[in-house]
Amino acid sequence: MGGRIFLVNVGTNAAHGFCSPIFEDRTFEFLPIPEDRRLPETLGITYRQLRSFYDPQQDILKYVPENRKDCTTHNDPEFDTFTYGDNCDFNSRAMSLRNVSRGDYLLFISRMELWKEGSATGEYGFYFPGFIHVDEIITSVRHSPERQVRERFSVNAHVRRGDSDSALWDSFWLFGGSSWSQRFYRAVPVTKQLCQNVFRTADGSEWKWKFDRTDLQTIGSYTRSCRCVLDPDIQSDQNKISVLWNWIENHS
């Protein structure tokens, strides 16, 4: 577990009007964001086609608004072959991912809504759904990739977009995970206490928890942009890294 840790906010959130559901035992279903266009059926994956992580025979439409069920998803990250893509060259939110190296970790964080007895509760929290241990990086993809790359990343949402429209080979980056990558069986809670123990701002200061903001708002604000949050080459981070991985091991 020696690589740097980059925190990446993923999945549906308040802006989309629905979130990934989490249950009382912390099992969960990950709901990717909607695609910004409808892709051809041969390339796009709709919410109707998504299946439960725990029972592949079951769909997860119960957790999706009626008007979204046939929308194409931007299924990224995907936890089948462990890939992630982002527009690191021009999306300011993702530019720090240009510093990712092989052996680093993309630790995903997602806003989720608690469901009890088959119904949404309106209670939200942030959780880690999984991570990618980076084994391969493809930078600035501007055209259909060569066969070997295509085979590795064929199901990634950005590659599927490019296949649907050549204008969408738009200089995105691709990250492929090693066999160490995980989609957690149970979502790992991101609590105020955990954040105070392990995370700092880019200038090294502690997060500020203001009285007029909820913990949810504070965590969302500090994790909106992707960035390296822990570096094993920084001595003061080494204990924080151990605390984080122990927390994940004990809760996933």
**Structural class, from secondary structure content?**
alpha+beta
Low confidence ranges: none
Mean pLDDT: 96
**Strand segment count:** 10
- Which assembly state applies to the chains in this document? single chain
How many domains? The number is 1
Q: What is the global morphology?
A: globular
Share of residues in strands: 25-35%
Number of helices: 5
Alpha-carbon distance between the two ends: 16 Å
Rg for CA atoms:
18 Å
How is the biggest beta sheet arranged? 8 strands, mixed
Order of SSEs: EEEEEEEHHEEHHEH
Portion of residues within helices: 10-25%
Please, could you describe this protein's structure?
The chain has 252 residues and is α+β, with helices and mostly antiparallel strands. The chain has one domain (5-251). The chain is 19% helix and 27% strand. It has helices at residues 147-153, 157-164, 192-198, 215-222, 235-251; strands at 5-9, 20-22, 33-34, 73-74, 83-86, 105-116, 119-141, 172-177, 182-189, 227-230. The strands form 2 sheets. Strands 1, 2, 5, 6, 7, 8, 9 and 10 form an 8-stranded mixed sheet that branches. Strand 6 and strand 7 (119-141) form a beta hairpin. The model has no long low-confidence stretch (mean pLDDT 96).
